[in-house]
UniProtKB/TrEMBL annotation:
PANTHER family: DUAL SPECIFICITY PHOSPHATASE 26 (PTHR46599:SF6), PIGGYBAC TRANSPOSABLE ELEMENT-DERIVED PROTEIN 4 (PTHR46599). It comes from Gouania willdenowi (Blunt-snouted clingfish). Transmembrane segments: none annotated. It comes from the Eukaryota. Residues 49-68 have a biased composition (Basic and acidic residues). Residues 137-354 form the PiggyBac transposable element-derived protein domain. It holds the Pfam family DDE_Tnp_1_7. Residues 17-68 are annotated as: Disordered. InterPro entries: PGBD (IPR029526). This is PiggyBac transposable element-derived protein domain-containing protein.
Amino acid sequence: MQRRFTTQEALELILNNANPCDSDGEDINLQPNSDSDSELSSDDATAPHLEKRARLESEPTETAKEGTVWHEEHVGTILRFTPMEPYAADGEPTAKARRRIRSRLQSFLCFITVGMLRPIQEWTIQHARQTEQTDWFMILHELMAFISVIILRGVTKVPSLRDSWSACLGNPLITGIMSRNRFQDIMRHLRFDDMFTRSERVQTDKFAAISDVWGSFVTNCITCYNPGRHITIDEQLFPSKTRCCFLQYIATKPDKFGIKFWVACDLKTKYICNVLPYLGKDPSRPSEERLSESVVMKLMEPFMDKGRTVTTDNFFTSLTLARRLLSRKTTILGTVNKIRREIPQSTRKMDRKEFTTQVC
């Protein structure tokens, strides 16, 4: 029969096996508490502050290619540091949005404001009169109706634009809002900037054709909603074959050509918290900074210092990014590309047993 050790005997065994040379200089506190038995049995006792624990000689270490030293831990080992307090609230509209929203229309105007719609109306009329009819006009409410048709077409999937107005496949709401010919007429002339000054602005802004309206929309997305604790970041390809210098071809996507966006979303609600277009090489990004790190830091900037967790795939996840986020009270969870030089060699083994876990 195996002998059971008391708390005092177990701590003495640990103290005898501990090597002070393995400590990083802090005091090792392993003194037993005389009231430990009563504290363990009490439901109301508060958790003690986690002290620096002595590292045992038996714990293996491993040095990655770029010099990072990893210590393998036993699963369930007490953390060597006090974890940060996580963000506790669920995602919810901001106080500003709650004050403004009293109907569906006001909810829509939180994101696409009248101040954004008027320039679109002005530049669309400008383009139509310059290219076709000098008396072409569109009122503001007609532009809002046009946008509502686009939203409804996203809800009701049909094979082609023409089918949205068909008697069999079409949505009755769409046919009641606007005729197909008028919708196509507005679509043909729709513009988001001044066509006469674009050539000058595009020298410094590749996204000049829509950047003003786009910037306002993204700002409204950030200011109208407080995301919860978990935010996910990934790329999304918007299908397009328009001619522009930042058009992307990604063979693994269903639509091969398009404009790529970096998107941060709230995990539970799928709300778009922040979004950036990929416009090619950014001259303002330092040469030593990875693109993936720059993207995550920019997308997460409005939500830092609150105890949130960002989830990424192996394109983004790296040790340097984790350290930068941790300095802003933000943690990261994600898969890691096995070619990263900071990853220990033991984690790349393919012969591990099923349902096993390695913690470093």
